[in-house]
Design goal:
The protein has 137 residues and is mostly helical. Helix content is 60%, strand content 6%. The chain has one domain. The chain crosses the membrane at residues 12-35, 47-67, 79-104.
Length: 137
């Protein structure tokens, strides 16, 4: 049972698992950094997309656990499979719209807004006011 092939296979599968987990963590950090500099329209259904993606991956995990496992088909096991799939899909779909905006910059929507220039500008604390300020209508 302690063949060298099994040992190398175990090391290889562990290394691949850690690489994938590290890549997913890097993606989530990168996507959240992008979202700080991205403004989306209010009409974008962000939370609906996140929950639908989570429900879809959770359902696929539930179906996989139901059909692949021949034993231990308890309700707790199936609900754990659904919950794990839901969390994975939900977390990985967060900021997907921000990433799309970043990756496809030619699809920028611009609009005109009305504004007034006021003198003096907003307060800068105890150091006075800015020279001028903008008030959006």
């Amino acid at each position: 049972n302690n063949h060298p092939e099994n040992k190398y296979r175990k090391w290889f599968s562990t290394a691949i698992t850690y690489l994938i987990a590290g890549g997913l963590c890097w993606y989530m950090l990168w996507a959240s950094a992008i979202s700080h500099y991205t403004v989306l329209q209010n009409t974008v259904p962000e939370w609906t997309t996140y929950f639908c993606t989570g429900i879809t991956t959770g359902s696929l995990s539930f179906i996989y656990a139901f059909y692949i496992r021949t034993f231990n088909r308890t309700l707790k096991y199936l609900l754990n499979a659904f919950t794990g799939g839901f969390c994975l899909g939900f977390i990985l779909s967060l900021n997907c719209y921000d990433v799309c905006v970043y990756l496809f910059p030619d699809k920028v929507i611009s609009y005109e807004s009305e504004y007034d220039v006021v003198f003096p500008g907003p307060s800068r604390g105890k150091y006075g006011h800015c020279e001028a300020g903008l008030w959006l209508k």
